[in-house]
Amino acid sequence: MRYLLEVCCGSVDDAIEAEAGGADRVELNSAIFLGGLTPTLGSLIEARKRLSIPVITMIRPRGAGFCYSEVEIEAMLHDARLAVEHGTDGIVFGILKPDGTVDEKACERVIRAAGDTEIVFHRALDVTPDPFKALDSLIELGFKRVLTAGQENSAAEGIEVIRELVAHARGRIEILPGGVTPQTAANVVSYTGADQVHMASFKPQPDTSTAHRPHVYFGFALYPPEDRYDLTNRDVVRKVRDRLPR
Fold it and tell me: What's the alpha-carbon Rg for the chain, to the nearest Å?
């Protein structure tokens, strides 16, 4: 059995590196610093042109939580339709109510906008008050897969809940454990019964174009360094790929 490896990417270059490292599928985002937001349409178009593996497109209009205004939901509907029109293999999103439960009506709207494209629920599951009740809602809505770290920050920390979610799902929805490393990937799949994992790994890359005015920055109070950026670490992706059971 081959276990599937999905890699979280924040750019087309990330996605290229992920595939080179052995990824079977990529989740395309922007703004990884914020947990991943909707990528640009140009990024999706270029990713589909350059990659031979499936591309799942994040549909998330902003950072923080997952309870969105009507305006934000309308933007998500546009983004979902455009992603489908431009060849995405699936969309990943999540909408919650103020109490943290799944907003089924809002999710249904995005699902309709996606048509027959694969739909995935992201780690919003990890902040729901009852992940098993939430999972039942996702199954009823027709989601193909849900990304989760077992209501923790990594699959290794949430491994018990992930195992219970796999058992609760009974094959009705795919459980995708997120946040694995070369050290934890094999144990996560063997212990939980999941047949796929999700990871992210980055290494800094230099960008010297700001060197002449290093005091100038373009973010806010918590601003990142302007002389480097992150790129997917294909070597770490390869280590996870090699350590997954075959």
Answer: 18
Residue 160 is which amino acid? Answer: E
Q: What tens digit of pLDDT does each residue of 192-213 get?
A: 999 999 999 999 999 999 889 8
Q: Say which CATH architecture domain 4-204+233-243 belongs to.
A: Alpha-Beta Barrel (3.20)
What is the pTM (predicted TM-score) of this model?
0.91
Q: Helix %, strand %, coil % for the chain, to 5?
A: 40, 20, 40
Element of type H or E holding 9 = strand 4-9
Every domain of the chain and the residues it spans: 4-204+233-243
Half-sphere exposure of residue 52: CA atoms within 13 angstroms, side-chain side: 3
Burial class (CB within 10 angstroms; exposed 0-12, middle 13-18, buried 19+) of 73: middle
Distance CA 103, CA 44 (A): 27
Find where tokens 């990937």 sit.
Answer: 185
Q: Are 66 and 37 in contact (CB under 8 A)?
A: no
